[in-house]
Amino acid sequence: SDSKKDHIISCCLCVSGMNAAVRATVRVGLYTGAKVYFVHEGYQGLVDGGDNIRPATWESVSMMLQLGGTVIGSARCKDFRSREGRMQAACNLVELGITNLCVIGGDGSLTGANEFRTEWSGLLADLVRAGKITDEQARKSSHLNIVGMVGSIDNDFCGTDMTIGTDSALHRIIEVVDAITTTAQSHQRTFILEVMGRHCGYLALVTALACGADWVFIPEMPPDEGWENHLCRRLTDQRARGSRLNVIIVAEGAISRDGKPITSDQIKKLVTDRLGFDTRTTILGHVQRGGTPSAFDRILGSRMGVEAVMALLEATPDTPACVVSLSGNQAVRLPLMECVQVTKDVTAAMAQGRFEDAIKLRGKSFENNWNTYKQLAHINPPDVKSNINVAIMNIGAPCAGMNAAVRAAVRMGIIQGHNMLAVHDGFDGLAHGQIEPITWTSVSGWTGKGGSMLGTKRTLPAKMLEEISQNIAKHNIHALVIIGGFEAYVGGLELVQAREKYEEMCIPMVVIPATVSNNVPGSDFSIGADTALNTITSTCDRIKQSAAGTKRRVFIVETMGGYCGYLATMAGLAAGADAAYIFEDKFNIKDLEMNVEHLVEKMKTTVKRGLILRNENCNANYTTDFIFNLYSEEGKGIFDCRKNVLGHMQQGGTPTPFDRNFGTKMGAKSVMWLTEKLKQCYRHGRIFANTPDSACVLGMKKRALTFQPLAELKADTDFEHRIPKTQWWLKIRPIMKILAKYDIKLDTSEHADMEHVLKKRSLLTK
């Protein structure tokens, strides 16, 4: 029906990444043939009507991906809380024939939207009675569909792994933490950093994980009685170990066990009075809400926007209002009020002192972060040693986040009672005996360092197996953590194959994928890819901005990734590219011609610039120079071209919060797994591991971290091109094309069905 074809977007809260969601919702709405309207100033605009509700066009959402906040404005609205206000809002919608509402905001905004939907028929009846609308208008608009997207920097909405804006807020916080730690180290200071999170400690917790803080205060899990003594003991211990700085992270809503607030001033007074340490407090405040959205938030917003339109178009009067959200890397739809209920349950659990339940209700992701933080920060190394030697090495090209994984693995190993060994310069170092003990303090401050502190090389072990086996025996290595890219995976396979000949190789091994290319089989994500993606995205922002003044300019940008098109595709989505050429998605001269024609048409609009990304190995003949020359020739008189090869800047830089957190969790989990495997493989006084499941890749698959045997992954590997045969992100490519105004078919066969979040809750409340 025609009424199904009108939909409207309203933003009720302001966070980075919202504009990506607005842009995607508008463009996909227009692509499906719907009429799309903006509501300016949130619910206030809905109540006031008039010029606040305006039609959106394709061009009206151009050049907004890199802007923080929301371009359609946002406002808290008292009027909408009253029935009269909602009646006026309903009247404004009915007059325009709008029956689909997309709301981006926090749980308050979304609850308001659901209430509006529930009352809809009653509001229409009242409007008819008051003579404000006709029976015919009421009949045409008899039902209101609602879909929500959660925009909140606190990540406090249950049912979703990440809310729009959270990752960008973490970027702001980590920038400050990095700046502060340099000055604190120089002066031997203690820094107390207060971050947002009145009812949710997610930002504080992930910041603590990502910077290796000495202590974190979060509302979900207040410290035990007598925490003051424990905190002072911890800080003194760290100084005694040679640490020059202490970092304490406080969520603004931190409380003690009896519900009293714990403030940063209170903590500062404690540390200064008891220990005499030079202590400084920094309250970040609204800095966390602003700034350029991260690549993750732009992609998240874009994917959620697409899913929201699909949910609206498929909705029936019986479908409950839903929120679109993210679980692992999967888009999911969840009943709105179930999520709101679980979010309220967390608050209730905290108020009743059921803190363990509060952490569980926050979801798997929060619980994993909390457990990892506790394991890495709160335990003194055991007195009893395990007499196990675990070696750690980096293989392949360096990438940001490798050091975070090494640090977590080293510390987790020491906590387990193992002796940890550092292997320098990859398999070369293992063959030539560049192996030395690595201690708790030697990895201090590593989470924020880019590159590889251990040193790394691309050499594979096949030609050095004799020397490697001798050094494994000489240094009595019982287990191996291999952190790196495709070479780490292939090297691991070569060691496994050598088990037949060399008994020394019969030890448990784990490969942690760490490469900007994100091309390791067995994992949807690699450490380092997020940092590279942000580097490319911010560079593309600058490049596009440079064209804003000159007009009629097309940029050809070459990205890394080997044969894997992950970086080109995801950066294309995050930066708003017109095309991204990759090896996995074959293209020919006709496609190139079509892309040029598309840009010629684009230059006739108000958006007079283009961005083309090309993966370095997408095609041997259609090189970056070839594509640049082709576009230059075909665009003569219409647009001019520039080319940029980004090169090794994509491998450098300080790791993003995602890569620090991901690296930390992967490093810790790998050693926990090795510890269990070593127990299983211990026979007759020695370690002997030769089963396929004793050498695994630890990877993120859909929604969980899983261990997959190296041998089993061979079937899913294209060894010639160094990529997995199946790659999840290829399904996202059509979104980029639709958002760039290509008329292609969007495959909705994999659309997200409604899932439920209440099962978990009922188990906890029994």
From TrEMBL:
Please state the Enzyme Commission number of this protein: 2.7.1.11
Q: According to its UniProt record, which reaction does this protein catalyse?
A: beta-D-fructose 6-phosphate + ATP = beta-D-fructose 1,6-bisphosphate + ADP + H(+)
Per the record, which residues fall in region N-terminal catalytic PFK domain 1? Answer: 1-378
- GO cellular-component terms in the record? 6-phosphofructokinase complex; membrane
Known regulation of its activity is: Allosterically activated by ADP, AMP, or fructose 2,6-bisphosphate, and allosterically inhibited by ATP or citrate.
Q: Which GO terms describe its biological process?
A: canonical glycolysis; fructose 1,6-bisphosphate metabolic process; fructose 6-phosphate metabolic process
| Keywords attached to this entry | Acetylation, Allosteric enzyme, ATP-binding, Cytoplasm, Glycolysis, Glycoprotein, Hydroxylation, Kinase, Magnesium, Metal-binding, Nucleotide-binding, Phosphoprotein, Transferase
Whether Nucleotide-binding counts among this entry's keywords is yes
Q: Does the keyword Acetylation apply?
A: yes
Binding-site positions, beta-D-fructose 2,6-bisphosphate: 458, 515-519, 553, 560-562, 616, 642, 648-651, 722
Residue positions binding Mg(2+) = 107
Query: Which residues hold ATP?
Result: 76-77, 106-109
Phosphofructokinase domain ranges (all copies): 15-311, 389-673
| UniProt similarity note | Belongs to the phosphofructokinase type A (PFKA) family. ATP-dependent PFK group I subfamily. Eukaryotic two domain clade 'E' sub-subfamily.
Q: What HAMAP family does the record point to? A: Phosphofructokinase_I_E
User: What does the subunit section of this Swiss-Prot or TrEMBL entry state?
Assistant: Homo- and heterotetramers.
The task this protein performs is described as: Catalyzes the phosphorylation of D-fructose 6-phosphate to fructose 1,6-bisphosphate by ATP, the first committing step of glycolysis.
Q: Output the PANTHER family linked to this UniProt entry.
A: ATP-DEPENDENT 6-PHOSPHOFRUCTOKINASE, MUSCLE TYPE, PHOSPHOFRUCTOKINASE
Q: What protein name is recorded for this chain?
A: ATP-dependent 6-phosphofructokinase
Q: Which organism is it from?
A: Amphiprion ocellaris
